[in-house]
Amino acid sequence: MIKFSQLGDLFLNYFAYGSNMLSERLVRRVGSIRDKKVGYLNGYTLKFNKWSRDGSGKANIVPDESGKVWGVLYGMNEEQLAILDRYEYGYSRKLMTVETKAGKKKAVAYIADEAPNEKSPYDWYLNFLVRGAEENHIPDDELERLKNTQNQIDPEETRRNENYLIAETTGENAE
C-alpha cells in the first residue's frame, strides 16, 4: 500500500476514473475535497471488469499501450484514503503519473486485484461516471463513449433510487 511517508507530503493526489469522478459521490465518502484537476493516464484503458459483490461490473484500468483514461485528481490526506480503501474493496492502490494542464502529477489510483471478463455496470453506477465526466468537462469523445457503454438495470430498486438521488444532488458540496 502506498503511504505518505514514501512521498514526503501531507496531501496526495488521488486519480478518480470511476464513480468518484462525481464530486458529490466522493464527498459523501471522505468529506471535503481539495485541489480538483482534470487529467489523463496514458498507457491504460477503462474497462468494467472488476466484478462487484452486487453482481455488476465496476470500473477498472488495465494496461493498453495506445490507451488513455480520463479522470479527476483530488488532493486527499492519508485519513481520507484510508476511508476510501474501505469503499474500494477488491482494489489496491498504485502510484501513477497523470498528465494535467499543469504538467505531470504523481497520483494514487485504485486498480482491481482481480479482473476477469467484462461485466455490464448497473445503470446508476454508469450514471455516476457520466455525471462526473460532465461535471469536470472531460473531453466530449470520452463522455460519448461512457454514455454508450452497455449497462444493466439494477434489480434492487431501493439501491438504484438512492444512487440516482446522490447523482442528482451534484454541486451542493462540490469544490
Describe what you observe in this structure:
The protein is an alpha+beta fold. 29% of the residues lie in helices and 36% in strands. It contains five helices and five strands. The protein is globular. Helix 3 runs antiparallel to helix 4 and helix 3 packs parallel to helix 5. The two termini are 28 Å apart. The longest helix has 13 residues. A hairpin with a 5-residue loop joins strand 2 and strand 3. The chain has a single domain, classed as Hypothetical upf0131 protein ytfp, CATH 3.10.490.10. The protein has a five-stranded antiparallel β-sheet with strand order 1-3-2-4-5.
Give the structure's gist in a few sentences.
The protein is α+β, with helices and mostly antiparallel strands and 175 residues long. The protein contains 5 helices and 5 strands. α3 packs antiparallel against α4 and α3 runs parallel beside α5.
Q: Secondary-structure blueprint of this entry?
A:
Layout (H helix, E strand, L loop, with lengths): L11 E5 L6 H8 L3 E18 L5 E20 L1 H10 L3 E10 L2 E10 L10 H13 L4 H8 L9 H12 L7
Antiparallel strand pairs: 1-3, 2-3, 2-4, 4-5
Helix pairs in contact: 3-4, 3-5
How many beta-strand elements?
A: 5
Q: Which class best fits the helix and strand makeup?
A: alpha+beta
Largest sheet: 5 strands, antiparallel
Written as H for each helix and E for each strand, in order along the chain, the element string is EHEEHEEHHH
Given the structure, what is the number of helices? Answer: 5
